[in-house]
Structures
1.
Amino acid sequence: MLRYRLLLSALAMVTALTLVSCAKEVGETNEEIQARVLESWINVKHPGSEKTSSGLYVIEYLEGTGRQVTDSSYVFVKYTVRELSGNIVATNDKAVSEQLGKFSYSSHYGYNIWRVDQDALYAGVEEILKRMRVGGRATVAFTPALATLSVTIYSLFSSLDGTVPLIFELELLDCVENIYTDYEEPMLRLYSEKYYDGLDTIKRGFYFAKIKEVSAEDSIPTEAQIKIRYIGHMLDGVVFDTNIQDTAKRYRIYDSKKSYEAMDVTFKDNIADFKQSNSIIEGFADAIMRMRYGEKAVAFFWSQAGYGAGGSSPAIPEYTPLCFEIEVKEK
């Protein structure tokens, strides 16, 4: 009986705090209202949490023992974002997605890569990351005052509702100072050594090899209409796109609304025109330009020739090297 009364008392306190917090005073802004809502929630759920001068609440914090995040680091982060109700609104944790019944083979899981100090992260997220070392974990909560963006680059932050308090659970898996020399280029070299006998680059960040060659007589003239079959995957083997139906089904990314016909492409003699005319990424265009009718090839390249800092949500994360297996159909 005593336990029941205590439970009722706790519920009544939470309700009272919420009602008081949500009562709008004359001239009060949404940010001020949400700040009071969050303060009440913290006092009930996580009393004693650290509050920084900016208004960030640090609910749980483990600094980590690895490399320290600097003002220009690229950070590799696993995250789960919740509302105060506990509802999960975003995560890149595969296990969490599976528990929620929202796992999809067309989505990326594991970690996302962000750069700090470029006004593309929520201020609350950037503040806690700069306190962390690799291996660290933190749970923080903040109001809309710390959820503003100057630059829209990363899909997570542009997809969230920044008008209400949010709770971020963050794990810092790694950080590097130069995403290209410290991460992408070494990854591409290892991929080349493992699968293509140490194939060298055609140019920086771009590898290309023909799997099936034909004679020069089958060269493709500028403005010719050609048909392309392709499989696009990341270097870990995860297939994110293809126009081959059996392959899409094998990798569980088949979409019944998608046409799996060969891709129509207008052949151009320079990459800029090729990209613009066919709405394709640079690395894909560069590979096709080096091919002839009936040839098959593979190209793998860094994110500067792919989807860059923004990635292509939900399948391709930021700063991701890609690989394409390509076939130009016969004339």
2.
Amino acid sequence: MPSPTMKSYHDRGGDSGIAAYEYGADWIRIRFRKGGTYDYRSSIIGAAHVRAMKRLADSGRGLNTYINMHPEVKEGCR
């Protein structure tokens, strides 16, 4: 079950599959609208990807696209 501290993803584009997120120093956790919550860790996908995903999550735009455009991110979740 997702953490109660997850923030709603604002989905400024209106078509994202992401519902909510939360993050720490070296990870981001994402809950998708169609189910499933996944962790992305810098030790697996790299710190640059985690930083970019945090920025996109906070902006409410482009996070789902980013995940889909980077196979190492899409396949690196847990």
